[in-house]
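For the sake of transparency, this paper describes our internal protein records without simplification. An entry from our holdings is shown next, in its original layout:
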Amino acid sequence: MSEQIGLERLTGLIAFSRAASLGSYTAAARALSISPSAVSKSVQRLEDRLGLKLFTRTTRSMALTPEGRDLHERTLRLLREVDEIEQAAVAARAEPTGTLRVATSNPLGIHLIAPALPRFRERYPKLAVDLRLTDRMVDIVEEAIDVAIRVGELADSRLISRRLAPHRVGAFASPGYLARRGTPRHPNDLADHDCVNFRYQSSGQALRWPFQVGSRTIELTPETGIITDLSDAVAAILEAGGGIGMSPTYVAATYVKRGTLVPVLPEFQVERSVITALWPESRQGSPNVRAFVALLEEIFPSSPPWEGICSGGGRSSD
């Protein structure tokens, strides 16, 4: 029989794998909930034990050596097998228990997922939830995420997906702003208004505003006096009278319901994409995942309430 693998050897392989997958000790430390120095020391001990240099490092970057790339591939296979063993054991239980790791974007997490977690915990008190909010594209398999909720339909043979709801965006403004400046009747009228825009954290690109004009979908990027990289910040600026801005309907609905924002150009609103749940094939039989997917079906009914709140009637023909 081969020598039993010690705990320190396993922690070194895990630290190395996360650092290699995420590109830095800091990101690996965040994923593993330990300090960057602990990751660095684990990798250094692994290199010393193997007698190999696994990374080439500069002050600004870190890259795998050829030996590091080979070990990374082997380590990923090992960790996936460990994960499958764990999931098989989880699937054998009738009751959800342990920890469920959920990843989603800031606005989806804040407005839709987080408010539903207390009732989920009431149903399954033995199941803890680790909710991770980030606009970074998380690698669900490599980062051991159980369920992710994303905007868009993403093709990945390692994942199972389920459509949850349309992702509709529209323009909004405060009643006070519209009273002062008037209400635009066509997307072209936005040139005469103060506009607030959203910038993607991942790419740094400004949002192009989509509108449905008759049978055509047009996109424009208006001149903006304020731009920010958080959807909730856009809504807060609009609520304070900062101008007209674009928002997902599930974010704007709370403000519309209390009367601090109103839809602008609602007849031109666009279904931009879809909201999708994804989970690894290895989690398919997990009672934890089944329970959470059932919760998602409650959060995202066939007629989402936020769509009705932000609806403004039919389409414009021109």
Summary: The first helix runs from residue 7 to 22.
